[in-house]
Write a structure and sequence with these properties.
single chain; about 160 residues; mainly beta; Alpha-Beta Plaits; SH3 type barrels; 2 domains; five-stranded antiparallel beta sheet; four-stranded antiparallel beta sheet; 3 helices; about 15% helix
Length: about 160
């Protein structure tokens, strides 16, 4: 059975590190999140790593070529404690995998109810906090948002929302 380990990749080299590790036969998992940022006068959506600088690697712990992993192009180092790599709890990695689609993009949680506090993920109101006002049978969602001193009601799609803590 394979264990999951954490590796640190070089800045902005997650694609290169993942490609080179996969070429060597290692299984990698890099959870990504969609973020909205302003570029010039418009908003663009980008995929960024959920844990900047880190990705998960599945290897068999008995026969692992640690030096091969550490010397892979794009990889900075294998995260280790007391000089020895430690496997991650399987529940952490499997829980993250269940929250992702096939490409590794984090999916929003499935259950929302009226009164929940949510964060808008995309669009011009990205990162704003709102309250779920109405969810109709076709799963259209209306949220209330405090905007410029007034409560504004707007319709959004489910994939634009994330439960806020």
């Amino acid at each position: 059975m394979n264990d999951w380990y954490l590796i640190q990749f070089k800045p902005n080299n997650h694609r290169l590190a993942e490609l080179n590790l996969n070429r060597q036969g290692f299984e990698t998992f890099l959870p990504m999140q969609e973020i909205t940022r302003r570029k010039a006068s418009r908003f663009v959506n980008d995929l960024k790593p959920l844990f900047p600088g880190y990705m998960f690697l599945s290897v068999e712990s008995e026969m692992t070529p640690w030096r091969t992993i550490n010397s892979t192009i794009g990889v900075s180092r294998l995260v280790s404690f007391e000089g020895k790599p430690k496997p991650l709890p399987l529940q952490i990695v499997s829980g993250l995998m269940l929250r992702c689609d096939g490409a590794g993009k984090i999916l929003p949680p499935k259950t929302l109810s009226v009164g929940d506090s949510v964060e808008l993920l995309t669009g011009p109101f990205a990162n704003f906090i709102a309250t779920v006002d109405t969810i109709d049978p076709e799963q259209r969602i209306w949220v209330l948002m405090d905007f410029m001193g007034q409560r504004t009601r707007m319709q959004v799609t489910r994939d634009q929302l994330q439960l806020s803590e």
